[in-house]
Specification:
The chain has helices spanning about 20-25, 35-40, 60-75, 85-105, 115-125, 145-150, 155-160, 170-175, 270-285; strands spanning about 1-5, 45-50, 75-80, 110, 130, 180-185, 205-210, 210-215, 245-250, 260, 265-270, 285-290. The chain is α/β, with parallel strands linked by helices. It has one domain: TIM Barrel.
């Protein structure tokens, strides 16, 4: 099992040894495997920087240099997360790509749209490419009341709840053709398994303790301080309220906890899902990406 940590702010690097304690902020009771995670979290060897969902959370060149200096000092590897990017967004990220190519030509980059993937393949052929979670479509509607009852209705229902895009041979074949070597995924909220992808030729990363439900370009939280007529319009410069604000979303029909951070809605794994993931990670050499540092306990 490999442990990687997602950091949005270079100043958070002092929190790195605190994964297991920080994880307890999201759970009322200890979960099976906490002690094992405590041991392994002290030997993490990779940091994720950047963001999958919002181009406004991509690090500046100065921040990236800070991250890279820290990684070199601690002998850590770096993975850069990128969201869906327009041509303008790709141009803004190009200095980061140039810097990473100069410092480490085989840097791992997570892509979430084909345009970025083709751009990187053409201009930075040595980058190691991973397919991000936005490529991976699966059933995550929080209004389904009973996954056990629904999955027993038919084989089709079971496949709906347990399988996602990454599990399909055609998708795997296309990703291999495009030189993608790793797939980044969540535990499906109604699923019984991580999926069958670990039996393929791809390496696998699984994020915890949150999976994502949905995301979009227009950010609700970024509109809070805008004038009424300007709300839900993509701002020229975002104030990034998501850095200090996380919202808990509640409804009587939700089957699991939901939170919103920035333009994305996430769900919290149950303690049994998390325990299952830790056990499987040991046996199948998964990379676990801890994303809890980008959220706060209070919502």
């Amino acid at each position: 099992m490999e442990i990687a940590l997602h950091l949005r702010n270079p100043d958070n690097k002092g929190d790195l040894p605190k994964v297991s304690n920080h994880l307890m902020d999201f759970y009322d009771q200890a979960f099976v495997g906490k002690e094992d995670l405590e041991k392994k979290s002290h030997s993490f060897n990779r940091v994720y920087v950047g963001d999958e969902f919002c181009s406004n959370r991509i690090p500046s060149l100065a921040e990236m240099k800070h991250f890279f200096s820290f990684a070199e000092e601690k002998n850590l590897n770096i993975t850069l997360l990128t969201p869906v990017l327009t041509d303008e967004g790709i141009a803004k990220c190009s200095p980061l790509f140039e810097y990473l190519e100069k410092k480490h030509p085989e840097t791992e980059v997570v892509v979430n749209d084909l345009g970025v993937l083709f751009y990187l393949k053409r201009n930075y052929p040595l980058f190691r490419l991973s397919a991000g979670r936005l490529f991976n479509k699966g059933f995550k509607d929080p209004r389904l009341s009973s996954n056990e009852k629904s999955s027993s209705i038919s084989q089709e229902a079971d496949e709906l709840l347990n399988y996602s895009t990454f599990d399909h041979p055609d998708f795997q074949e296309k990703m291999a053709e495009l030189s993608v070597t790793r797939l980044e995924r969540d535990l499906l909220p109604y699923g019984n398994d991580v999926g069958e992808i670990t039996g393929s030729d791809f390496k696998t990363s699984v994020y915890f303790p949150f999976g994502y439900v949905t995301s979009g370009r227009v950010c609700w939280t970024a509109s809070f301080k805008q004038k009424i007529g300007e709300r839900f319009v993509i701002p020229v410069k975002c104030p990034r309220p998501c850095n200090g604000m996380t919202l808990e979303l509640k409804h009587k029909n939700f089957s699991f906890p939901l939170i919103q951070n920035g333009n994305t809605i996430f769900y919290l794994y149950t303690s049994s899902m998390l325990s299952y993931l830790l056990k499987r990670a040991d046996h199948e050499n998964l990379r676990l990406v801890y994303q809890g540092f980008i959220f706060g306990k209070e919502c």
